[in-house]
Write a structure and sequence with these properties.
The complex is a heterodimer of chains A (290) and B (309).
Chain A (H helix, E strand, L loop, with lengths): L1 H32 L6 H19 L3 H22 L9 H23 L14 E4 L2 E4 H23 L1 H11 L1 H6 L4 H24 L9 H15 L4 H21 L5 H15 L12
Antiparallel strand pairs in A: 1-2
Chain B lengths: L1 H15 L7 H26 L7 H17 L4 H23 L4 H21 L1 H4 L5 E2 L8 H27 L2 H11 L1 H6 L4 H27 L1 E2 L1 H4 L2 H14 L6 H19 L4 H15 L4 H12 L2
Antiparallel strand pairs in B: 1-2
Classes of the chains: A mainly alpha (290), B mainly alpha (309).
Chain lengths: 290, 309
Amino acid sequence: MPLLYLQILANGLVLGGLYACIASGFSLVWGVQNVINILHGSFIVLGAYLAYFAYLQAGIHPFLSILIAIPVFYAIGYGLQRMMINRIIAAPVLLTLTLTFGLDLMLQNGMILAFTADFKKLVLDPPLGTIALGEMVLPVDRLAAMVLALALTAMLYLILSRSRIGRAIVAVRMDREAAALMGVNVPRIYAITFGLGVMMAGASGPLLAMIFPISPLGGPAYLGKAFVICVLGGLGSVPGAMVGGLVLGVVESFGALWFGPEHAITLSFTLLILMLLLRPHGLLGRKGYE
Amino acid sequence: MKRDAWIAVLLFALVALLPLSGEAYWMRLGTTMLMYGVLAMSWNFIGGMAGYPSFAVAAFFGLGAYTGAVAQKFGMPMGFAWAGAGLLALAFAALLGLALLRLRGHYFAIASLVVAEVLRELVNSMTGLTGGGMGLNLPIPAMASVDVQARFFFYAMLLLAAATFAAMLLTANSKLGFGLRCIQQNESAADMLGVDTTLYKVSAFMLSGVFVGVAGAVYASWVYYIEPPDVFDVLYSVKAIVMVLLGGAGSMFGPLIGAAAFLSLEELVWRNYLQVHTGVLGLMIVLLVLFLPKGLLSLSQRIGRRKMP
């Protein structure tokens, strides 16, 4: 029995690493500009399609297609913010939410037309196999995807904490007016932030394509997870997304064991409500930053 | 208030003449429009008046539909089943409101969005009671003909829409409506000045739930067959919001105008671009938010203002 628990814990952590990567970009955009990017989930799916077709048509390994995804999705995000979202950034919360929702409907519809509604699965040939850790068995593709996901998340952390642009983003998050007075070009920083957020979504697509089947309507499920993780870990901080992602991964894995996988949403929603009521600033968040 | 009431009576009386056309197509469209109107006006209580971006419409709608259907499955007469659906939605909104309305902004929006997903999952897994993913068939009411049935459901929806409008009009002109507008402007200040914000918000949320619950039950009886992804469709929440935005948030006739305008657009898009209708809906939302964020009614005000010297 302990072996079963250990195996499930390991599975949960692997899943959690991927979740951290999904959520970090979403959390960044939400934290910095108070915009919920409903498109986030669909961009992940689009990234997964990119990896699928790159592998099928050109034989590019999914891990390498991340390198294509990064500039492409950054450009999409940057342009989207510049052309649309910046125009209504000062409007009430409902409007930005509705705008990204409308864009999401368009993207989903576009993906159905372009890729059909069939589920697709990226199957590596030859498969990467499994490795045994003691008595536990872990598939190599999942493990590698988790390592890459954590590396991507760490990269975002380094950008935010070390680079000039990153410090400007953090400054805007803390106090927009003061940052503007210090010479930070706020609309540009918003665009860069949104670009980074979309980039993280697009880059985690290929990783998820290795593990889960791809469907044009799979976005909302990823979006829901990103939201729960933000609340769990605390908003706008990369370490928060990391912790929240790992916690959710482990909770979901054990929840599937104890309650059955069909109750995954109910379980995470219960967790969400409990967190919002008991610790609204998240596990790692600081008070007053929620 | 009196003027609004008279305009509304006239409007509903005009709509009540629709069955004279005798066309089944127009009856169906009219019933749908009234249902949309109920959803939009209900959202207006919490979203337009109190300024809380609720996405719970789909949850109330599905809950009402399933309550009505399950009650009828156990032999309850249709009218009682509808009332029961409304009451359950009311109670559910009260409990949910107490938990969720402490949250603000995006937190409230997403939490209310997830409620429909949770309910759908629960309904899906309770196969014995709800039929799960197989859906649920409702008894077909014993009436003389299909036309009589169509007319019956049209008038049921009309009555419900009129009740919703009356509730909205009364609320807007009462202490409750005043308090809700205070909460929208500045909740902390309203709290400080003695508005019982929790009570007011929960009341608004309950009002936004009860009529949608009944609408769901009427819808279930109307279409005879429901399944979880159909009645817990998140698009119901989104459509309600879009309709109110289209008509103008917080105004009296905005939701109704928005519902009529939205349904006309939707019907045109459905008819002509079946493959891309969600995409076109998305495009409409984007254009609306970017270019007309205050709704169609703001157009007439803008034109009116220009005329003034």
